[in-house]
Model the fold of this input.
Amino acid sequence: MKYEFKVKKIDVESGGKNVIILNKEDAEDLNLSAMDRVRVKDGGKSVIALVDLAESYVKRGEIGFFEEVSKKIKIKKGSKVKLEPVDKPVAIEYIKKKMDGIALNEDEINEIINEVMKEELSDVELTAFITSMYIRGLNNNETISLTKAIINSGSTLKINKKPILDKHCIGGVPGNRTTMLLVPIVAAAGLTIPKTSSRSITSPAGTADSMEVLAPVSLDEKKIKQVVKKTNACIAWGGAVNLAAADDKMIKIRHPLKMDPRGVLLASILAKKKAVGATHVLIDIPVGIGSKVLTYRDAEQLAKDFMDLGTKLGMEIHCITTPGYDPIGFAIGPALEAREIMRILYGEKVSLDLIDKSLVMAGLLLEMGGVAKEGEGRKMAQEILEDGRALKKMKEIIKAQGGNPNIKPEDIKIGKFKLDIFIREEGRIHLIHDKVISEIARTAGAPKDKGAGIYMYFEKGDKVKKGQKLMTIYAESKRKLEAAKEVFDKKVAVELDKVILENFSTETKPIVYDFG
Amino acid sequence: MKYEFKVKKIDVESGGKNVIILNKEDAEDLNLSAMDRVRVKDGGKSVIALVDLAESYVKRGEIGFFEEVSKKIKIKKGSKVKLEPVDKPVAIEYIKKKMDGIALNEDEINEIINEVMKEELSDVELTAFITSMYIRGLNNNETISLTKAIINSGSTLKINKKPILDKHCIGGVPGNRTTMLLVPIVAAAGLTIPKTSSRSITSPAGTADSMEVLAPVSLDEKKIKQVVKKTNACIAWGGAVNLAAADDKMIKIRHPLKMDPRGVLLASILAKKKAVGATHVLIDIPVGIGSKVLTYRDAEQLAKDFMDLGTKLGMEIHCITTPGYDPIGFAIGPALEAREIMRILYGEKVSLDLIDKSLVMAGLLLEMGGVAKEGEGRKMAQEILEDGRALKKMKEIIKAQGGNPNIKPEDIKIGKFKLDIFIREEGRIHLIHDKVISEIARTAGAPKDKGAGIYMYFEKGDKVKKGQKLMTIYAESKRKLEAAKEVFDKKVAVELDKVILENFSTETKPIVYDFG
Done:
């Protein structure tokens, strides 16, 4: 089979994949079904694409190019291309093997990741692979192979220094902006820490979203190297560089079903660390309801797995478990979090939990990097924060990344529409529901609207009195503020214990307070 | 969140699913990622759709409707619709549960199938479900629940007769056109057999494709009932009626990875039988290389599973295992197969294997239906075939379905381009490779070109001499005939044993003959 089709360009993306559209009749003629593969050829260039079908939009003799294919085969509309049948990629056999519970070897895993990178696997096939890894698990060899394949799927930062430090948090805790404190502390001590962070997917802000309030974070590899050369550090958005590229493609599939197969999680995290050239990595594993790891036992096993895999990749791994049931810090949302960080760097004693956690972690990194003796890292970190070296370093980083180093906390713009929520009854804060807090902040506009978010005035365990301010919701538009209030009114964001607990009655339902 | 967007219609199908496109910026504003769900509202009408993203094709403030959504929300382009966020369907929790190895109850399975029918699950989610069923398996209760859910997902034929007979072949054997012989035989004996068949997906012809050479097969439910009322039987295309609708949606996902989880296969087949009202079902399980079931032990277990499930659904099931390693009959391709059937009905002694298998199966159905005594069905079937009652009944069926009842075998149009392949060396036919034969016939144009296909002059075990005609390839265009020849030249379709087998040598490679 070799047929010519006239190109019709469709200015729509097909989600990263190479997809072409054929008329149903033509497809039948060629014995092609939806999701089959064909090779599209134009002279020397060729690309393998998945087939989609149309009844009328694409006429007989035409071929519709989605944007991805248009970019790869640059051709005028109306020109002709040839189609050739292709066999199914061998990767599909390997996926089937994994489904059947047979461990894959390095070559097989490489082949699958290659196909992922070439965008030649359909979502159905990639989902089957990820579901299989979720259900069947990965053994140690498979995990190493997968990690290496992911590392090789993208570029690597080549920074000519040693040691190179890095840290990672397993995620799930809002307001957890330790990175923006510990990076300047660690760098101020003379250690190298080229930090790439993510933007938020489901939370009100990722580290990259908050840092972006202070300086550009979409740095390419060249720029990152420059910044790190000047300052020993950076706080950049990982999505702007092509590190561990296969991981991003898998996350798209893992996200809708929250599939975090152990081996894939390990591979995904450590591949990114290896790709920046890290030699020492600190991993923060928050434990508890609302975070990804529910029990300390699970956390311990995960820590062990990280250390095993890290050793095999030539990295020293240090893991800590931290309480994961409450927001860290009082600010939630990009600008509010950035402002909180700058306040702390300027010496204000706010968000003590956040300061404490950041100092512990910075201290461990200082010890791992060999500039502090065992047990003395935290003290050194505290000195660096308190004597202004951390602030000085943060200013250098902001400047090197292209921001204004003289920005003061009060210069940071917060959403001008706000709503205060007051305590209606005396009690003690029993629980702050992360997910509801996230939803309110996101409905208020975070992370897209930098100034949107929530400022909490109390934390878990605090005693509160009627009339005290519990939180303020900020938004950049009145409409979004109202929408956020609607969420607050409908759901329970904060629960109070009654002060008089001994006053039992037959009423056994938990008493839920709503505020505002 | 409640926002208005201007509708832009996109004349492209999104594979059955409700998909809308938003501009990336708008989506970020709304905290929506690709594959998230939204409710699209226009006055009273609303539909839940999956989100796709565009950078420029859909501008800010616009919403792109793929055809599926355009059909459900009929609105002029340029009009405005509202968007509302929706929570993830609860079905996703159940899919996650199945992934985690927890058996699902009837309500949970119903909910998943409901979501499938509403087109509210993405391919990723549905694939995860099917992969989970493949890996985890289904227990008896789950299989029954799934079968019932599939039955309820479509309509059911209500034919007011008893018993109602049906047969099913697990598939995989080309040229296996027993249905077109046994249906007229069984109906001529006074039994009711409303047969719905599939079109080909990967083979050169399905029963519906072959029958369509003789009469229309795209009959709706009303027409099927009319035809059955008149003739006791029909041979219709299952795709034209809405029986067991959820099954078709799952097949799309199962097809690319050939995922036939046992429970799903059972549910898929018996749901369709129950939906036509069958009381007695004969299931043909071909065993061997090239068919879906490899060993007799597997076939036995499968037969047991069919009988168990059938009993629970109130149907009597009879299973037979048949050899599945060779094409049945000499003709492959819609018109060639239809001509072979008509020859047999007109009394010619061709394709003796096909006649034999059809008579055995028809005989069993006559016994199951209570019109023949045990052990006497085959004889009765043979009489019905030989005395012309089967031909008479077939003419009635052809007429009732809207075809020409007076069609003769020689009236059936075969592709006018043909290529004869001759034997080049004496020997015995050792193997006929189903898959290669299928590929040749499909490349020649089958099933789309009704006249395309292959006629084989020998079968496995036959002694052949140099110069004898082995097969003829037919096509409706010269180009396709040449393409088919190319496949024949490249691949091994038929293998010969050397006649002098005792003449051993150190050459241990199997000797492969190619012809032509």
